[in-house]
What does this fold into?
Amino acid sequence: MVSLLDIIGPVMVGPSSSHTAGACRLGLLARCLVGGTPETARIELHGSFARTGEGHGTDKAIVGGLMGFRPDDERLRTALGIAEREGLDYRFEKTTLDDAAHPNTTRMTISRADREAVMVGSSLGAGRILVTEIDGYPVEVTGSFHTIVLVAEDVRGSVARIATLLAEHELNIATLRLTRKQRGGDAFMVIELDEAPGEGVRDQIRNLPWVRWAFRLDKVGA
Amino acid sequence: MYKALADAIRDAEARGTTLSSVALTAESEDQGRTIEDIREVLGRALAVMRQAVDQGMVGDLHSSSGLVGGDAAKLRTGPDGPLANTLFRDVLARALAVQEVNAAMGVIVAAPTAGGAGVLPAVLTGLAAARGLPDAALVDALAAAGLIGAVIAERASLSGAEGGCQAETGAGAGMAAGAATEMLGGTPTQAGHAIALTMQGMLGLVCDPLGGLVELPCVFRNATGAAIALAGIEMALAGITFAIPVDEVIDTMGEIGRSMDVRYRETAGGGLAATPTGRRLAKERLVQIKRG
It folds into this structure.
């Protein structure tokens, strides 16, 4: 359903809702995967992102997003300089992902302390985004919800245990998706929530013996 | 939200109220938010629109490519033409101002999109300045504009990549025309005609930005889009009607967009972008941006 407020908005730094605002949101989601502003970032740009990204400030928007700047933050304009001062070592590369990839797609390899993450995401237009891959697992994350992503050993009852834990914290699940690379291999869980989960919930999930890692992704949609 | 403007106009006329009012009621029911809350969000959007107009009027902004900038100020202080000292000239300047801010990575409201963000604030704030209208009237107008944009999104498209420039500045012009007609005292039915009279003039408009950048001709398309919106408003308030119903005009925009060659849908493969000068400028400026 189209909302009137989606049409009169978002408030954003120009010039392009797909190449600037959407790119910034991809950066905002990626930083959550390493728990804050990364120390290194290798940012590969595909398709239209690679061809016209510089003129649209896509590079500034992604780096700004990685530092936690939102799409309406005027610091995006000078984000590359700020990143250099703050010690975010970024590198842009042009790439060609497979033919099925959306024209505005980026693959980011980022690290912070001992954590490294690889995220593939696309900007679909009008500021909407879709993350399609995290650490090699196929996912669908829109950033329109508060999201928890986690990797767990494929043990019986894992979904039920996590659903119960979320219910105990009065968090309502909007969507839940489970993917595996192979049977009996690690499972990747994406849980979109109506309410923002606190750090306590994340820590409880992390403390489950069969959970390898878990992160909270901010709601970055309009 | 409504899927046909005919339904919104019928409801507004039957209740003796406005498109703004039925838009706010529908949004409140859909989203479970109070009308007061929705008006507050629209009020914040209005403040950003005003700020963008003011910022762009000064004339010291340039896009990173240097292709656009400083032209809003020329309309404000440059030599007179046939529209000297008119509301019309002021609205053109405001539309350029917002798009120049957008191209320079300033803050704008993407309404309906970033590339078409100049038309609506230009027409609404320009009219409000000339007529001394209060902010509450502008917030109502933004609600009506949002309703019109939502119907266009539902029936056609608001994306240049999907429907060409008619889907961005054309939609912005339709939104501005309907909202402003009502703001100036027109009936919901007259607002519908204003939208149709405006959008008929923007059908088929292609999206052909040089180098794919939201600069040229986008900045100027917002000014000419605002001009067509003013023409639509003027005709509708004079009592002129358009024989094709507004929803059918919107459907036509969608149909034309879907059958438009991909070269004309934000790919920089056709139109002005593909002219010898367009190609040369894009190449030069993209190199310049890379050198930073």
Q: What stands out?
A: Chain B touches chain A through 56 residues (CB under 8 Å).
